[in-house]
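Repro:
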Amino acid sequence: MSPRAVDAVLRDGIVALRDAGIPDAATDARRLMAAVLKATPAQLTAALRDPISPSDEGAFADALARRLQRQPVSQIVGGRWFYGRWFKVTPDVLDPRPETETLVDLALERPFAHVLDLGTGSGAIIVTLLAERLGATGVGTDLSEIGILVAGENAAHHGVDDRLILPVSDWWEDVGGTYDLIVSNPPYVAADEMPSLAPEVRDWEPRLALTDEADGLSAYRTIAAGAPDHLTAGGRLLVEIGYGQAEAVSGIFAAAGLENIAVHTDLDGRDRVVSARRC
């Protein structure tokens, strides 16, 4: 039997994902096929009529089976693009979302020399910030030792590991010094909201990075309590928030004595980041 063409195998994969109710079936199938063929999107398009080897067809079938189990594509292919850079992703860290790039954009609007990322996960935020600001240094903390290792790999991959310290820390526990920029994408899903999350998130991403097992605001209270002592005069605090949390997080920051509090929307017009300053 002659080998099948890439596009025929890809079409079958799209149908299988679509029939299983997988959102964005075509996009997911193309990402999986590109990873199997070690191809860029443009290279995949150019190769669609080429024959696919039996080994690659088998690898695609294996990847498809994992996606049908609702495992996120980023975990299957081993990473995802964030702010134009490839970041390693494993089940031990939160999958970097495009929406989080809003926080990065806001952070880069003003200069900074020393940045702290609380709950760094894959390191996508702080590694990006250091890669964009070559003179800056940073600290990225996380409670997960395995997560810190992933962040370290991403830092080394992007050549910022010599400017980044990655301690295992429970929020402020092992954090010293002051910073002119503090950022965080903390766990903000309330415990009672967890069952309603998509299975890709609920069943495959680390629960520790998703929820505080309470009202979804505990991390913001902790961050706000320690921020004034760790921000330089005029230093900025930027945090990602969940749906409907803008007013509550702004109130928490105000109660902690932070000033110039503002809410920023993402490209979809949703409240995504709350910023504040120590004056």
